[in-house]
Every structure is written in C-alpha cells, then in structure tokens.
C-alpha cells in the first residue's frame, strides 16, 4: 500500500471538467481533494490561466503505478505534449509530487522518469498551496514542511497570485474532499 500526492492542472478546454474527470477516475483511491485555485501560467506566460488542485490517493500500487495513472489521466483528457513548449498549455497535467510507503517512509528516487519528490514542487506555490489544503502538516521529503516552504520568499510572492475558487468543487457531496 502506498500513498501519493498528485498535482492537477488544466488551462485548455473545460478546465474544471478535466480536473473533475481526473478526480472521478481516481475515485476508489482518493483520500482527500484540495480546493481549486486559479493561477497564472508558470514558465511560459503566453497561455491562459490554470485551474490547479491536489489529490491525496492511496492504493496498492508502486510509485511507477502512480506515474502510469497520471499519464493515463492525461491521455483521457486528450493531452498532447509539445516538446517545443515544455511549460505550454495543456488540457490536463498530472504530476506525482511525493509517494510514501505503507509504513509512512517517503520514497526518494532520482530516476529521470519519476524523480521523487517532484524536483520543482518546493518552488511552486500552485503545487504547495493545494497540498497544504489536504495535508496541512505534510513534509515534502528532503525539503521540509509544506507550510514552511510556502513562506519562502519566492514561493510567498507567487502565492499572492493564486486566486482561491471556492465556487468550484471537485468532489461531489459524500466523496473525499
């Protein structure tokens, strides 16, 4: 049994619909779902704003299982990767942020296919803020508490650009959230 934090983002098409579909597809594995945040694009400013969220999932899969699930969700949303625009627009982006074993120990990996924890998560308010929603006391393995990372000057400056969207729900009544 493993637990994982997945970061969700969408800025093309039905943004909320893509996020909702991802959460619905993970239904049997979802432990908690964050709020939704509208965020400016990161790394490539010439694109629409994103909707971002995070999901805590649990299941019998390995870290590679969570990566496969992330790619499956992206394919299901019609994501097409453009190598010329690494941080370009997308229907759905699903990143595996961190994975923990059943005993609570974090999985640390420098595999180029799945680096854990995600190598840039500690720098991105649009990842850290939703993670804080679902796990306020969480540690990002090797980097410290998420709450502390949110106070780092660069992250705190980006945090000011996030717009909470309490009017947008990802989990239906009765589901995790």
Explain this structure.
The protein is of the alpha+beta class. The protein has a single domain, classed as 2-Layer Sandwich (Alpha-Beta Plaits), CATH 3.30.70. The protein contains five helices and ten strands. The strands form three sheets. Strands 1, 2, 3, 4, 5 and 10 form a six-stranded antiparallel beta sheet that branches. A two-stranded antiparallel sheet has the order 6-7. The protein is globular, with a radius of gyration of 15 Å. The two termini are 21 Å apart. The mean pLDDT is 92.
Shape field: globular
| CATH fold-type name | Alpha-Beta Plaits
| Separate helix tally | 5
Strand portion: 25-35%
Give the distance, in angstroms, between the N- and C-terminal Cα atoms.
21 Å
Q: How many strand segments?
A: 10
CATH class: Alpha Beta
- Helix/strand/pairing category: alpha+beta
**Which spans of ≥5 residues are poorly predicted at pLDDT below 50?**
none
The main β sheet shows up as:
6 strands, antiparallel
CATH architecture: 2-Layer Sandwich
């Amino acid at each position: 049994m493993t637990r994982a934090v997945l970061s969700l983002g969408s800025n093309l098409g039905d943004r909320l619909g893509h996020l909702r579909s991802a959460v619905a597809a993970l239904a049997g594995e979802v432990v908690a779902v964050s709020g939704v945040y509208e965020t400016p694009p990161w790394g490539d400013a010439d694109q629409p704003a994103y909707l971002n969220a995070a999901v805590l999932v649990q299941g019998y899969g390995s870290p590679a299982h969570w990566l496969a699930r992330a790619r499956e969700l992206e394919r299901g949303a019609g994501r097409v990767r453009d190598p010329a625009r690494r941080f370009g627009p997308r229907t759905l982006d699903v990143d595996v942020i961190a994975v923990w074993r059943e005993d609570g120990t974090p999985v640390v990996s420098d595999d180029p296919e799945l680096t854990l924890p995600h190598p840039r998560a500690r720098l991105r308010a649009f990842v850290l803020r939703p993670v804080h929603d679902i796990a306020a006391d969480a540690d990002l393995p090797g980097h410290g508490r998420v709450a502390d990372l949110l106070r780092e000057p660069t992250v705190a400056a980006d945090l000011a650009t996030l717009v909470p969207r309490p009017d947008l729900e990802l989990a239906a009544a009765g589901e995790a959230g």
